[in-house]
Amino acid sequence: MAEELTALESGLALLYGTFLTYAASEEGDDPTTISKKELSQMMADQLPHIAGEGMAEKVMEELDQDLDGTMNFTEYCSLITSLSMTLHIVVTEHLSQ
Ligand SMILES: [Ca+2]
User: Fold this and answer.
1) For the domain 31-95, what is the CATH superfamily, name and number?
2) If you measure from the C-alpha of residue 27 to the centroid of ligand 1, how many angstroms do you get, rounded to a whole number?
3) How many whole angstroms from 76 Cα to the centroid of ligand 1?
4) Which residues form the EF-hand domain (predicted)?
5) Which stretches of 31-77 are assigned E, i.e. beta strand?
6) What is the pTM assigned to this prediction?
């Protein structure tokens, strides 16, 4: 009998699943990395309250460490870390007011 995932385990699975879904969303390109177009679609679908128009281009420029023009899983983790840190800063500032 499989045990139910905890909230954190579910969150990790969701983060990884989201990467895999968008990496493989366009046919004909590498299904293990997120292209600029896939990133743009992911941000529009999944980060509508955070990501503005044209932000995907800026994010790719900042996080594409190996300069191959796509986002691999390590680079995606940098995006998640950056978003998590932003959330932490916002919450910390709110709590200190
Ligand atoms: Ca890259």
Assistant:
1) EF-hand (1.10.238.10)
2) 18
3) 9
4) 51-86
5) none
6) 0.90
